[in-house]
Amino acid sequence: MNDAPGADQGPAGVHPLPGEASGKGTGGLSDAELLAVLLRTGVEGRSAVELARRLLEKAGPELPRWEIEDFLAILG
């Protein structure tokens, strides 16, 4: 166990996910937040969570069947 100050904070620039911060784990994350984890980053002007919300709004349950062109249309 590392008792150094800040040892429990993780790498610099890495922030806990919303569910992790509340102590609920991944079960406390929304679908958009879970998809954002897979996306890893957003695009200019949109966070990964905002992008994930937009994808879920447009695709809904069809998201697993989307082609790359469908994703590119969302990105503009």
Q: Pairing-aware structural class of the strands and helices? A: mainly alpha
Alpha-carbon Rg, integer: 16 Å
SS elements, strand count:
0
- Globally, the shape reads globular
Q: What proportion of the residues is helical, as a percent range?
A: 40-55%
Measured between the Cα atoms of the first and last residue, the distance is 47 Å
Number of helices: 4
Strand content: under 5%
Whole-number count of domains: 1
Describe the structure.
There is one protein chain. α2 crosses α3 (48-59). The chain has one domain. The model has no long low-confidence stretch (mean pLDDT 77). The protein has helices spanning 18-21, 31-39, 48-59, 68-75. 43% of the residues lie in helices and 0% in strands. It is built from four helices and no strands. It has 76 residues and is mainly alpha-helical.
